[in-house]
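Posting this for the archive.
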Amino acid sequence: MPLEKTQTKGIYKSPGKKGKVAYVVMYYVQAPDPLCEKGWKWKPRGKRFSKYQDALTFKVNTQSEVKSGNHVEPSRLTVKEIAEEWLESGKPDWKPQTIQGHQTQVAKYIIPSLGHLKAGRLSAGNIRAAAAEWLKGLSPKTVNKLHATLNRICEFAISEHDVKLNPMDKVKRLKHRSAPEDMEALALGEIADHGEDAPEEKPGTLRAIRPDEVYSALELKKIIDASTPGLERAFLMTAIFTGLRHGELCGLRWSVVDLKKGSSLFVNRSLTALKSGPILERPKTKNAYRRLDLAQELRRELTAWKIACPPNPNDLVFVNAMGKPASRKTNNDMLKSVCERAGVRALSMNNLRHSFASQHLIAGTPPLQVSHMMGHSDPGVTLKVYSRWTDKEESRAEAALAGRIFGAEEAEERGARDVEGQKN
């Protein structure tokens, strides 16, 4: 049906079925046009509203934006197109694992649920509806990760395609569902205990390592003694005496290991396991590039292993009989087996790295030096993660104060006896 004029110029009435009426705002915007002398030309646009007042508000705001040159047209690109462009833009800076994770999120969840929508029209309601579907098969924690990725895509759309608003600003992150224990407590009339004996750390944030997460010096010696000479012992001793990350251990090459008089190794690669196969890549940060001195015991073990090490294309230090690096699971299983033979508790390869740091701090190595050896991006990371051991000097000071106070009475009595003895 034809549009009918209203009392306001630029707003038209659009009669519909069953007497329903909609209001259409017609306005002009500057659109790029390389064929025009000015490089742009006026183009008509229209937007429909169910209420006259909404149409009037939009017209007034749009007119003001157009006159001031601040009006931005909603992007005509879809969420799918924006998301794919965002993925391509990040590839030069992201690690392969990060790329693979984002590609899975976009292809498996974001595009199927939201990809068909125009990026400029994406609303918080659309996202909540998609999240409700995702929750049928995913945990709230995983859905929050999808929200985080979608937020980055929306921010990219704002910066690169002049999308005005980020709908994720109106979407609340999900809370964890009630545990079965909470439901049972409620049924019994009890109070569900949501407290923590220790402060709960937010996912992805640094936390202090606990004493039960590291090995003592005696336990580390038992692990070394129980290990089989060759690959097993060389691998575990390198982890214990250098504190390398698992990827750095597996990516270590003979070309950067100096076994001569000034024995050392240089960390400049990390092996990352992908579905398509392992790859060698740069370390996590600039500080992760580091040279570490080798203990004489480790130098001797590596010298013996170098003779027996199977040849492999990348000249990797730690490979199996087939010349292939082992997976994290295989190495953790190997450590577990050695721990059982040694009669010590089984932890993971990552706990050997924590043990390296804690043993150095116990031995009095300055935290700044430990931070360098660990390849931390900031010494503050070392101070927070290993705070129990960096604070040991303060703990001794407190013990000394306590000893002074509780031993004061005994000292005074001895002093009194000495004075009495002098008098006699």
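The chain has four domains: 4-68, 79-170, 220-385, 392-418. DSSP finds 17 helices and nine strands in the chain.
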